[in-house]
Q: What sequence folds into this?
């Protein structure tokens, strides 16, 4: 971590904690955010419960965001949710291009760019997710793949000078218990920052680059201790107040 950038600890609930369970859990997340003032704590609930979670978080330091958005603002797109609709719930963030969206729902670099534009148009802060598959890593193509994914959105991000975030999530580490080692992750994070900085030093300096993929309470501190890792995007371990809170506190301790 680097003192210039406030650490960001983000919980991606995926298709879990809909309804009142999500609302109750959000109350615990408000307490976690309150206990960690040096950290931005954010949760990404399913869209069915987004408005209610945003209401719970309102007036607190907990940030709330959607997990996905459609690239158009409105129209005949059955089943989809747009950036303005997410903003109307009181949410201020959105995940874009998560690997599960790329893998199972056909999202491409082009659609991720369009969704990033749409998020920024709606006034939302996007967390753009990038990362290589196991096959790509084994073929030695990690940096090529991640560079292509970052360059697909770089121009859009450069035109919106405000705190933005990218999440580096190696696909092989998501939900598998396999975590990239701190040095392995840091190499990719440093490369991402260099690609952003070469377009605009401010963009490189201010963009928070999160690591994601099997982050748990016991590996968070080592990852967050790396110079270019500014936070974490957490799936499984964000569904439990004890583990999510422990990760947020690990980030808070590093700001002291
Ligand atoms: P995981 O998920 O922490 O369960 O590996 C991370 C993510 O998909 O954002």
A:
């Amino acid at each position: 971590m680097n003192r210039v950038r406030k650490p960001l600890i983000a919980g991606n609930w995926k298709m879990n904690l809909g309804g009142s369970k999500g609302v109750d859990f959000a109350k615990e997340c408000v307490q976690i955010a309150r206990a960690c003032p040096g950290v931005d704590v954010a949760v990404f609930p399913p869209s069915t419960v987004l408005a209610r979670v945003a209401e719970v978080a309102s007036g607190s330091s907990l940030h709330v965001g959607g997990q996905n958005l459609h690239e158009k603002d409105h129209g005949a797109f059955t089943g989809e949710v747009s950036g303005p609709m997410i903003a109307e719930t009181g949410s201020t963030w959105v995940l874009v291009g998560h690997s599960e969206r790329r893998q199972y729902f056909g999202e491409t670099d082009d659609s991720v760019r369009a969704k990033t534009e749409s998020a920024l148009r709606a006034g939302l802060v996007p967390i753009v997710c990038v990362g290589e598959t196991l096959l790509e890593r084994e073929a030695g193509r990690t940096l090529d793949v991640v560079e292509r994914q970052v360059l697909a959105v770089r121009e859009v991000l450069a035109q919106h000078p405000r705190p933005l975030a990218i999440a580096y999530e190696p696909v092989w580490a998501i939900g598998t218990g396999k975590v990239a080692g701190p040095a392995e992750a840091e190499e990719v994070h440093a490369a991402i920052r260099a690609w952003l900085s070469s377009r605009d030093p401010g963009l490189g300096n201010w963009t928070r680059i999160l690591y994601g993929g099997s982050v748990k309470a016991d590996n968070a501190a080592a990852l967050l201790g790396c110079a270019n890792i500014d936070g974490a995007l957490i799936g499984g371990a964000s569904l439990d107040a004890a583990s999510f809170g422990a990760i947020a506190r690990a980030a808070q301790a590093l700001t002291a």
